[in-house]
Amino acid sequence: MFRRNGNSSRGRGSRVGALLAVAALSLVTAGCGASSSDNGVSWRLAETHPRDYPTTQADIWFADELRERSGGRIDIKVYPDAQLGEERDVMEQVQLGSVEMTRTNANLVTEFVPSWKAFGIPYVFDDGEHFWNFLNGPGGKRKLRELKKANYVGLTYYDSGARNFYTRGEPIEKPADLRGQNIRVQPGSLTSEMVGAMGGSATTMNFSEVYSGLETGVIEGAENNLPSYVSTRHYEVARDITLDKHQRVPEVLMVGEQAWNQLTESDKKLVRQVAEESTKVQRELWAEEVAEARETLEKNGVSIHEVDTRKFRDSVSGMIDRYTKRFDRFIASVDEARK
Ligand code: GTR
After folding, report:
1. pTM across the whole model
2. Per-residue pLDDT of the chain (339 residues; tens, 9 = 90+)
3. Protein residue closest via CA to atom 5 of ligand 1
4. 130, CA 20 to 30 Å: which among 4, 7, 159, 176?
C-alpha cells in the first residue's frame, strides 16, 4: 500500500509543484483507499495563512502534540500559505479525500453545508464572550456535527474575531458610504447579500488575489479581522478600516470522512481531545495578535474609524429578520448562549 512521507522533499516548495504532487497523490490514493497502514496514518493539513499566523501556529501545535501522544502513529504535516490550493478548492479536495485535513473559515463552508450560512448572519453574536459561549455549548457542537452531511468531521473551532470593512478610497463611516463601492467578499458566504443590503456591491474573490485587486482598483475595499488585514498587508493599499464588526465567523479544524475512518476508536478520541486543547493555544495567540495588529496599524498611519455599529445593524435588519426565521434552531441556541 502506498504510504506518504509527511516530511517529504516537497516542503514549502512552489505552489505549482505542490499542486502537481496533490494531483499525482490523488491518482495513487484513489486506487487503494488512503494512506493508512496498521501502524498509523500520514496526513496533510491545508492552511491558507502564513506560518506565524495564530491559526497556523495552532495547527502546528496540534500536529506536534498528536504525533507525540500517539507515539508517532498519527503523523500530520501542516502546509501553510495555501500551498495545497485556495481555501475553497481545498474544501473540495478534503471532501473527496485527496487532502485529509484543513483549517478553514465558516463562511467558506456554506457552499458545502448550507446550514453553516447561519454563522454569517450580521451581528448575530453580541461580542467575543457570547460567541465563545455559543461555540462551546450545545449549539456549537451541533454545528460541528452538521459537517457530516458533506463528508467532513468537525473537530474544533478557532477564534477569528470580528470582520470589518476597509477601503482604498472613500472611508466608510456609515452604511451609506458603501454606495458605489465594490467590496471583495469570501466565496459562498452571506456577506455579499449583506454588502448589497447596505448599499454596496460585492465581488467574490480568492483570498490571495485581494492585495492586487485593491492595488489595481478592481475592488475598492474588502473586509476582514485585524490580524488578517495586517498579515496580508492589505493595509498598505487600503488605508482606512472601519470597526463596524459586521460578523464573527469562526475558524474550524476538520478532517475528511474517508481519512477519519482510517482511525481506530481510541485514536479518534485522542484526535478530538488534542484538537480541543489546540483551541486554547489558538485563542491565547489570537488575543496577542489582535493587540499587535492594532499597534502595527497605528504605527503605519492607517486610519481606524470607530463607528456606531447599531447603524450598520439597522441597515440590514430586513436581512437579519429573514435569516433569523430561516435558522430558528440556530438562533434559539444563540439566545441560550446569552444567559
Ligand atoms: C480570514 C480567514 C481565512 C480566509 C480569509 C478570507 O479571516 O481566516 O481563512 O477565509 O479570511 O477573507 O478569505
Report:
1. 0.89
2. 222 233 333 233 333 344 444 444 444 443 333 445 556 999 999 999 999 999 999 999 999 999 999 999 999 999 999 999 999 999 999 999 999 999 999 999 999 999 999 999 999 999 999 999 999 999 999 999 999 999 999 999 999 999 999 999 999 999 999 999 999 999 988 999 999 999 999 999 999 999 999 999 999 999 999 999 999 999 999 999 999 999 999 999 999 999 999 999 999 999 999 999 999 999 999 999 999 999 999 999 999 999 999 999 999 999 999 999 999 999 999 999 998
3. 207
4. 176
Contact 184, 210 (CB under 8 A): yes
Mind giving me the DSSP string for 112-178? TSGGGGGGGSTT-SSSHHHHHHHHHSHHHHHHHHHGGGGTEEEEEEE----EEEEESSS--SSGGGG
- Judge whether 59 and 46 are in contact, CB under 8 Å: no
SS3 258: helix
3-class DSSP assignment, residue 305? strand
Best residue among 104, 110, 207, 249 to mutate for probing ligand 1, ranked by most atoms within 8 Å of CB: 207
Side chain identity at residue 45, one-letter code:
L
Residue with cell 512521507: 5
Q: Ligand 1 — pocket residues by CB below 6 A?
A: 48, 87, 104-105, 108, 160, 186, 207, 224-225, 228, 251
Are 97 and 283 a contacting pair, CB within 8 Å?
no
C-alpha cell at 153: 468531521
